[in-house]
Amino acid sequence: MRAESEWAGRAEGSGGSSSMLTIPNAITLVRLMCLPVFLWLLFERENEAAAAWLLAVLGMTDWVDGFLARRLGQVSTLGKILDPAVDRLVLVVGILAILIDGAAPLWFGVLALVREVFVSGAGVVLAALGARRIDVTWWGKTGTFMLYFAFPMWLGGASTLSYAPFLDTAAWVFAIPGLMAGLVSVVLYVPAGRDALREGREHRRHGDVPASGAPEPVDPGEPPAGEDPAS
After folding, report:
1. Euclidean distance between CA atoms 24 and 68, whole angstroms
2. pLDDT computed for residue 123 by the predictor
3. Which of 11, 13, 38, 159 has the fewest C-beta atoms under 10 angstroms from its C-beta?
């Protein structure tokens, strides 16, 4: 009975308002609309410094919408889908654009992208198979947060900024620990995914929780705490 109560409470807590017009959702949409501006600055204006600063701001503010949603009581169904999707899109598009620009090491960018594709793909597959939600781990959050620093620094390091050489070196201070943390989260994701799939099927078979869609990703940019895919 206790397990059933915990499961029911978890399911109830994962619900959200159906309202779309909220402050957090507006912030998320603004961050999304800044992506084309980032690409324009980088490829059309060839202003790597401005593009680096914009991407850094987008990365460092990825926790704001989620924080405001909880603080203002404006957690919505749309926000639970849109916020983590935009966070991941910002990171993936940023990495791809910087690799095309040649500002970051190719091998590092590929490893970071493979990790993102694996986590995203595994989350979709597990949800389709009926797994319960998997929380974001400290490793996943920390890794993503560090990459949000590393890639803009590499881009700034390729610019004409007077402190560009410092940025290029400092990027590695965040990049290596960030990638290591991300890879650890992938390793932890395998047993977590297996358990989530078993528990999800078991509870749905006994009718303890209504069928749910995709697992609810947690904002990877929140201050490290909690548990993964995501991220």
Report:
1. 6
2. 83
3. 13
The neighbour count for residue 129, using CB atoms within 10 Å, is 12
Q: Which residues make Cβ contacts (< 8 Å) with residue 86, sequence separation at least 6?
A: 28, 31, 32
Question: Cβ atoms within 10 A of the Cβ of 97, count?
Answer: 20
Q: What is the Cα 188 distance to its own chain's centre?
A: 17
Alpha-carbon 91 to chain mean position: 7
Type of residue found at 137:
T
Q: Which two tokens stand for residue 101?
A: 């620009």
**Residue 138 carries which side chain, given as an amino acid letter?**
W
Which residues in the chain show pLDDT less than 70?
Answer: 1-19, 207-231
Residue 185: exposure state from Cβ atoms within 10 A (0-12, 13-18, ≥19): buried
